[in-house]
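User: Design a sequence. Structure:
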C-alpha cells in the first residue's frame, strides 16, 4: 500500500497531470487497493502544492535567465511573453477579482490549468504570494473534489438521470 501512496504523491507533483490525474489513480484498483478518500486528498494536495513556492519564486528568474541562451532561448522567451500576455488579459478581465479568477483557473480541471500554471501566472503578474497561495490551494481542493466526483461516477449518473 505504501507504493500506491508514493505513486499518487509523485503523480500529483507532475506538471499538467497534478492532482487531477492522481485522484483517479488513488481511487482505482490499479496497483493495489483503492486509497481511502481523506488520506488520498491529503497526499494529493501536499504533493500538488509542494512545488508551488519554488515555481512562484524561481520560475520567472529561470525563464529570464534562459531567454538569451542559444538552445532554449526562443522557448523561454515564448513562455515569458505568453505568460505576461495571458496574465495581463486575465488581469484586465478580472479586475479586483484577480484572486477569484486564479482560484477558478486552478480549480476547474481543464487541460493546461492547475497549480503549476496558475502559480506561474501569479508569479509573472507579481501577485501577492500569500493571497496567491491561498487561491491556488483552494483551487487544488476544488479540482480534487471535482475529480473525486467524476471518478466516482457522480457526473455520469447525474447526466443519465437528467437526460
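Assistant: Done.
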Amino acid at each position: 500500500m505504501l507504493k500506491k501512496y508514493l505513486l499518487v504523491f509523485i503523480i500529483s507533483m507532475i506538471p499538467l497531470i497534478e492532482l487531477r490525474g492522481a485522484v483517479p489513480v488513488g481511487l482505482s484498483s490499479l496497483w493495489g487497493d483503492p486509497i481511502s478518500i481523506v488520506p488520498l486528498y491529503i497526499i494529493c494536495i501536499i504533493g500538488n502544492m509542494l512545488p508551488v513556492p519554488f515555481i512562484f519564486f524561481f520560475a520567472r528568474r529561470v525563464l529570464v535567465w534562459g531567454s538569451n541562451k542559444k538552445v532554449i532561448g526562443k522557448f523561454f522567451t515564448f513562455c515569458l511573453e505568453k505568460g505576461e500576455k495571458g496574465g495581463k488579459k486575465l488581469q484586465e478581465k478580472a479586475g479586483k477579482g484577480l484572486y477569484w479568477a486564479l482560484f477558478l483557473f486552478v480549480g476547474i480541471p481543464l487541460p493546461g490549468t492547475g497549480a503549476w500554471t496558475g502559480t506561474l501566472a501569479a508569479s509573472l503578474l507579481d501577485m501577492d504570494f500569500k493571497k496567491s497561495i491561498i487561491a491556488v490551494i483552494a483551487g487544488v481542493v476544488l479540482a480534487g473534489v471535482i475529480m473525486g466526483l467524476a471518478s466516482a461516477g457522480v457526473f455520469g449518473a447525474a447526466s443519465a438521470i437528467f437526460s
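Residues 2-49 form one domain. The mean pLDDT is 87.
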